Amino acid sequence: AGACEGAAAGGAGGACGSPPREQPVLEPVLPAAAEEPNGTDSAKAPKVNCEERNATGGERFTLQILNVSQDLMEFLNPNSSDCTLVLFYTPWCRFSASLAPHFNSLPRAFPTLRFLALDASQHSSLSTRFGTVAVPNILLFQGAKPMARFNHTDRTLETLKDFIFNQTGIEAKSDVTVTEEDWEGPLPSVLTKGIDWLLLFSVLFLASFVLYATLRTDSIRWLIPGQEHEHQE
User: Fold this and answer.
1) DSSP string across 197-213
2) 64-182 CATH fold
3) What residues does each domain of the chain span?
4) Residue 77 or 34, more confident
5) What is the DSSP string of 5-47?
6) What is the mean pLDDT of residues 197-208?
7) DSSP SS3 for 224
8) What local confidence, expressed as pLDDT, does residue 165 receive?
9) For residue range 157-189, what is the model confidence (pLDDT) as tens digits?
């Protein structure tokens, strides 16, 4: 259950499909413009004017993963202009697993920004709200407002650095690389097996409906006791 849809959800894009859900209508997210070579982008003004925070505490350098009972909106201050990079992932998606060590290293590269991650299968309402119909999906928030979406198929530390720099103008620390600790966590880089209960319920409901509709057709009423006399009349 919960198979990656690398071909169906984008082919070269490399994304895992999420369970069917409502169309996102609450808050449109402006997609990030296609990034050009660094020589051109470096001369552009930043698209998002982020308020850089004081990076003196050790917790600033750690990725925080939200559990099922935590709400993303509680971690985003609508009255602030600081920026947060949020990753929507699922533990059974191989593209999310391959991205994990690179995303784990970002807080060290940008200590003045905040980095959050959440399991999209456990926060389906947020996935619907922000249009994350496939995972992994990365959104840049300013306060509580989504400003840009990471659209590149090559999800590495360098492309993530370029995306943040092109959007905010904040330069990454040059000495940060992906380490063995980044492969271990906090975001898991090893696939986990699980049951997608929402998808299973949807399949069972659809199968029950088809069976009920089939039994109601005139062509097989004779299979139901008591209907053969009515058919003969």
Assistant:
1) HHHHHHHHHHHHHHHHH
2) Glutaredoxin (3.40.30)
3) 64-182
4) 77
5) -TTTTTGGG--EEPPP-PPP-S---PPPPPP--HHHHTTSPPS
6) 82
7) coil
8) 93
9) 999 999 999 999 999 998 899 999 999 888 988
Average pLDDT, stretch 102-121?
A: 91
Residue 15 · residue 134 · CB < 8 Å: yes
Distances (CA, A) of 107 to 101, 114, 161, 182: 11, 7, 11, 11
Alpha-helical regions (H) of 74-156:
94-109, 124-129
Do 99 and 178 meet the contact criterion of CB atoms below 8 Å apart? Answer: no
CA-closest candidate to residue 131, choices 156, 155, 151, 105: 151
Structure tokens at 31: 């997609």
Length of the chain as a residue count: 233
**Residues in a beta bridge with 64:** 116
DSSP bridge pairs for 17: 134
CB 199 within 8 A of CB 19: yes
* More confident site: 45 or 161: 161
- In this predicted structure, the answer to whether residue 87 has a pLDDT above a threshold of 60 is yes
- Whole-angstrom CA distances from 113 to 12, 103, 172, 228 are 30, 13, 11, 73
**Which of 6-15, 49-58, 105-114 is predicted least confidently?**
6-15
